[in-house]
Amino acid sequence: MAESDISLEVASHMALTVGRVLFQSNADTEEVHASVHRFVKALGYESHLMVTYEMLLLTVYQGEEFRTKTGNRVPSMNVNMEAVTAVLKLVDEVEDKPMDAGQLRARLEAIEHESPIYHPMVVVAGLSLTAASLSRLFGGDWPTFFVTLVAGAIGTWVRLEIGRRGANPLFVAFASAFVSGVVAGAAVLMKWSTMPALCFLAPGMIIVPGVPLVNCVKDMIKNHVSLGISRLGFAVLVTLAIAVGLFASATVTSVQIPVSETSRLPSLAGDALFSALAALGYLFLFNVPVRFAWVGVLCGIASHTTRTFCLGHGLDIVTGSFIGALAAGFLAHNFARAFRAPVSAFAFPGVVAMIPGSYAFRAVIGYLEIMKLSTAAPAGLVTETLALTVTTLLMVLAIAIGVAIPLTFQSNPVCVAALGGIGKLFQSKQ
Predict the structure, then answer these.
(1) Cα angle at 167 between 162 and 171, to 5 degrees?
(2) What whole-number distance in Å separates Cα of residue 87 and Cα of residue 74?
(3) pTM of the prediction?
(4) Which one, 60, 112, 353, 425, has least CB within 10 Å?
């Protein structure tokens, strides 16, 4: 594009919008940097971008002339894969052919103010099914399935309603966990389920900030350490808020959530079914485009069922999670290249069901019990709590690295072509 088509001032403003939309939609930091650089370069300029957790600082320059702009404070970030996909498509188009400033402004404004694909009630239904499916994946029975279905639905509705009113994310997490926990506790008191831990924890797990947890490790791997630590801090605080909400609901209903819990592995067929159903809710919540949703389901089956297969053959849960994430990361990476879509649109819904929310919650509940009992806390409680903490950290690290490893290798052209063909065949039958 000719230098005179779009001024330096306008280019810097639009490039900042590109970065802000990507960042607040929870694209990883490397993707934000690369997309802004490509966009600015297509307009005939160079750029330097600094991303912090609250704002973006962008300098666009050409020769001795430059403009430095600071973006508005980034609002609380939500995962919005439709927005990420639309921005990346726009960047591709700008690289392929010139667009005038009016066209670009209109496209960016439309992306920024686009309504979610899925109606809130669809999200509520999807996430309630996710919670119920997670209970089955952790060895729950059918009564527990229906209890977690109802508790997950009510907790998600509260989460969306409070979030829509601009409440603090930590309060949103606490309130939704507390409400779903009260519903679960009431069901346990009425003897509708004999598995109190799953009744409380499965609805709480759908609130876990899995994307920030995975992104924080990816950021650190790619040397965006300060931002990775910020994402980690946010994810830890949200997890604490959920755990405190569940603990408070257990106290109100007088139902004890055991720190130590045993679970049995489902069959591989059952695991594949409930992994697919669990992925659906996250696809709705993450606003993944409909045309890509089936890929997220496929990645969810690949990751969780692979982990279950590994556990059934004697591997530990950390190693199994790594291998499962590696499978999902490989599929997501190659499907993304075949469809020219962001990897995260496929990878995150695929692996988020493996995020160890249950371990993290039970660890926090264990610490609260230790705090309450002080020196009278039994050694078994202390040991179990520490083991849960270490397991949680190692699992998050294993999942993030498993997803990230395929991104460091060049795509296999044969694999990309094959997956692209599968995608076209699937979509032609819809």
Answers:
(1) 85
(2) 17
(3) 0.84
(4) 425
Cα 211 from Cα 400, distance rounded (Å):
10
| 148-187 confidence digits (pLDDT tens) | 999 999 999 999 999 888 888 899 999 999 999 999 999 9
Distance CA(164)–CA(36), nearest Å, equals 29
Amino acid identity, residue 347? A
Stretch among 59-73, 232-246, 322-336, 411-425 having the lowest mean pLDDT:
411-425
Asked if residues 209 and 234 have their Cβ atoms less than 8 Å apart, the reply is yes
